């Protein structure tokens, strides 16, 4: 009686072990099947990885630009300059500063007013700091469409180019590397607002807005 009972117990244990082993075998087969069905798309993985790295790099490179935007805003606020004198914005290339022509220059002149030099000097010092030393600075002069004809400035092309050059020379005088700078005269070819109304009458306020110097600050 006792031996039969022991035999039955042994058979039950063996049945249980066989069932457990069968289950493990089935699970192993299942995972092998899943692995065989999965297919790693290497090219897609590389594309995703490259895109992620690019976005991370872009984010890192954007940080100095964002910091510079903040610091320039604080600088202008500290000098109590309003948007009609110097405006600060951005475009798809970087930051954009616009200097009002009447604020920084006398009419028909390309000489910077002495009283208006401090903001440009402080701007040059900021741009010359190590953090922003790789940024390019493109300066453009703009006029309205009122013709000018003087021995010094035969046309608005010469006047606008001379005003842009005046800002560039000041930046160079205060330490900026000339290789970072460009100056260009646009004359009246890039108006912000119409110089005349629909009937062709001049719009003096608009013409004043179009007389400006634009500074593009571009990260490289």
What can you tell me about this protein's structure?
The structure is a single chain. The mean pLDDT is 85. This protein has a single domain (60-218), classed as 60s Ribosomal Protein L30, Chain: A (2-Layer Sandwich), CATH 3.30.1330. The protein is of the alpha+beta class and 220 residues long. Helix 2 (42-78) runs antiparallel to helix 4 and helix 4 (117-127) packs across helix 5. It is built from six helices and five strands; from the N terminus they run H-H-E-E-H-H-E-H-E-H-E. Helices cover 51% and strands 14% of the residues. Strand 1 and strand 2 form a beta hairpin. Strands 1-2-5-3-4 form a five-stranded mixed sheet.
Low-confidence stretches: none
Q: At the fourth CATH level, what is the homologous superfamily?
A: OmpA-like domain
Q: Whole-number radius of gyration?
A: 35 Å
Q: How far from one another are the termini?
A: 93 Å
Q: Main beta sheet: strand number and arrangement?
A: 5 strands, mixed
Oligomer: single chain
Strand numbers in spatial order across the main sheet: 1-2-5-3-4
> Number of helical segments?
6
Q: What is the CATH class?
A: Alpha Beta
Order of helices and strands: HHEEHHEHEHE
Estimate what percentage of residues fall within beta strands.
Answer: 5-15%
Total number of domains: 1
Total E-strand runs: 5
Percent helix, as a range, is 40-55%
Structural class category: alpha+beta
Q: Looking at the structure, what is the overall shape?
A: elongated
Mean pLDDT reading: 85
Q: What is the CATH topology descriptor?
A: 60s Ribosomal Protein L30, Chain: A
CATH architecture: 2-Layer Sandwich
Domain OmpA-like: 92-220
Subcellular location: Cell membrane
Organism: mine drainage metagenome
InterPro entries: Bact_OuterMem_StrucFunc, MotB-like_N_dom, OmpA-like, OmpA-like_sf
């Amino acid at each position: 009686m006792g031996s039969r009972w022991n035999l039955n117990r042994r058979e039950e244990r063996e049945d249980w072990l066989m069932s457990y082993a069968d289950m493990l075998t089935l699970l192993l087969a299942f995972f092998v099947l899943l692995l065989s069905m999965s297919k790693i798309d290497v090219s897609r993985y590389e594309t995703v990885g490259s895109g992620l790295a690019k976005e991370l790099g872009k984010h890192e490179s954007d940080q100095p630009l964002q910091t510079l935007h903040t610091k320039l805003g604080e600088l202008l606020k500290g000098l109590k300059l309003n948007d009609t004198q110097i405006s600060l914005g951005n475009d798809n290339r970087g930051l954009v500063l616009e200097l009002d022509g009447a604020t920084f220059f006398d009419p028909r002149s390309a000489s910077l007013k002495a009283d208006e030099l401090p903001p440009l000097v402080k701007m040059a010092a900021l741009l010359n700091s190590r953090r922003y030393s790789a940024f390019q600075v493109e300066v453009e002069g703009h006029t309205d469409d009122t013709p000018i004809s003087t021995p010094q400035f035969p046309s608005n092309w010469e006047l606008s180019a001379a005003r842009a050059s005046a800002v560039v020379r000041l930046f160079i005088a205060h330490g900026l590397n000339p290789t970072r700078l460009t100056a260009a005269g646009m004359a009246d070819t890039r108006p912000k607002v119409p110089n005349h109304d629909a009937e062709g009458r001049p719009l003096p306020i608009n013409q004043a807005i179009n007389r400006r110097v634009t500074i593009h600050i571009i990260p490289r």
